[in-house]
Amino acid sequence: MRIIIVSLLFFTTITNAQNFTWNGVFTQGLFHTDDNNIYGKSEDDVSFDFTEFSLNGNYNFPNNIRVAGQAIYRHAGATFDGINIDYLLFDMQLFRKEQLLSGLRFGRIKQVYGLFNDARDIAFTRPSIFLSGLYQDTLIRDTVVSSDGISFYSSYFSKFGEWEFEINYGETPDENLSNLVNFFGNGFDPDALKYLFYRLKFQTLDANLLVGFGGGVTDSFGGSIPLNINQLIPSLPFSVDPVSLDFDLDSPSRFFFIQYLFRDWLFTAEYSLYKNKSNDRALSGNATTLAILPPNFLDLIPGIDVATEPYYIQIDKVINKKWSMYIRHDSWVIDTNDRSGNSFEASGQGLAHTRFTRMTGIGLEYSPEKNVMVRAEYHHVIGTSVLNPVENQGSSFNSSKYWNIVAASFSYRF
Q1: Which domains, from first to last, does the chain contain?
Q2: Which of 50, 72, 229, 298 has the fewest CB atoms found within 10 Å of its own CB?
Q3: pLDDT band at 365 (very low <50, low <70, confident <90, very high)
Q4: pLDDT one-digit tens code per residue, 72-103
């Protein structure tokens, strides 16, 4: 909250300055599903629990220095509600020539993950109403969208096109770590999350082709999960206090993307693969409980060692100046060694279809003015890994494998 107040005071003092520009965007969405819930209570109902209102500003100082920031109010279902700072950074250009530009950004910076992560904070810069698997909008959007740290960037303009490289290192703000409970379950207590990301992309001079790749690695991330000993060792003749499983997590990742424009057709595809592996596991808690545990107790608890694979393909068609449409196929497999989820279900941890999501849909976009956008989408969905467990209590054992989403949104920028 302190950073929000300071930011608002800062932008208030420079609003009337000649070198200051600002913009705002408002978006209201609605969602209907025939099974399961997404962004509120949408099952056999219509949920209006998707509202975004953002204000962003940019001030240019002398000597190629600028400050930029965005505050956003976002209400998106049960786990996203409140005001946050998406980014607030100082940008210093260190080197600027005819073909080469390099600089540093520091503060709250946007993560350079994929093609859209640093440009999906408002509806006009998203390719659809919501992004599911690869960007995990329904689960941990706030955790991955930005970090507090530093970024180096460089652009080189050649006769073939523009090369752009960026690398950043930062720590997720504490207030954004609560999203991780959606992954690890209630009671999860996360430690600091620090990571490094890099991205290299190339765009041709005519802007018809854009390709890129990148990756990242966690520098420091861990947490604690409560363990019910009586459930893990049913043979115990008496009740004992729970203990905590403390662990660190390695999450190396890599991603690739391509975007190609041919006349009125736009083809976009992204692919990512990231691994999550727990290590340095230890137990903490009640000393009496720890003393009665067998020496090999940690071996009874399965660790995290999965490779997750999300990707999507989207094709947009411009119909005329006001209308466009798009089709999209989205896939998200949590464990590539168990794509069907059958092994997961056989272990008794939950339904097989909670380990993947495959979505195929069609969307329509209408923009009567440059500052107004109306979208409507329909998606047929197989699987439920995209579901937010807070909105779908007990979904691990009680959710529908086949379901449909109807969504619409209205956006206005000023």
Answers
A1: 2-413 (2.40.160.10)
A2: 298
A3: very high
A4: 999 999 888 889 999 999 999 999 998 999 99
**DSSP secondary structure letters along 353-366:** GGGEEEEEEEEEEE
Least confident of 102-106, 170-174, 408-412: 170-174
Closest CA to 42 of 412, 400, 411: 400
Can you state the percent helix, strand and coil of the chain, rounding each to 5? Answer: 15, 55, 30
DSSP code, position 120: -
- Asked if residue 5 has pLDDT above 50, the reply is no
Average pLDDT across the chain, whole number: 91
Q: Report the alpha-carbon distance of residue 116 to residue 125 in Å, rounded.
A: 8
**Strand 194-204 vs strand 209-220: parallel, antiparallel, or unpaired?**
antiparallel
Q: What is the pLDDT of residues 191-203, one digit of tens each?
A: 889 999 999 999 9
Distance CA 44, CA 35 (A): 7
Q: pLDDT band at 70, cuts 50/70/90?
A: very high
CA gap 314, 377 in Å, rounded: 13
Structure tokens at 281: 């596991």
Length of the chain: 414
> Which are the contacts of 295, defined by CB distance < 8 A and separation ≥ 6?
none
Q: What are phi and psi of 199, to 5 degrees?
A: -155, 135
268: Cβ contacts below 8 Å, ≥ 6 apart = 115, 127, 257, 258, 259, 313, 314, 315, 316
DSSP 325: E
Reference 229, options 169, 300, 309; nearest CA is 300
Q: d(Cα 248, Cα 220) in Å, to the nearest integer?
A: 8
Question: Rounded to whole angstroms, how far apart are CA atoms 31 and 308?
Answer: 27
**Amino acid identity for residue 406 in this structure:** V
Biggest CA pair distance of the chain: 77
Place of tokens 């979505």: 359
| pLDDT bracket for residue 327 (50, 70, 90) | very high
**Residue 35: partners with Cβ closer than 8 Å, 6 or more residues away:** 43, 399, 400, 402, 403, 404
Token readout for 381 is 């969905």
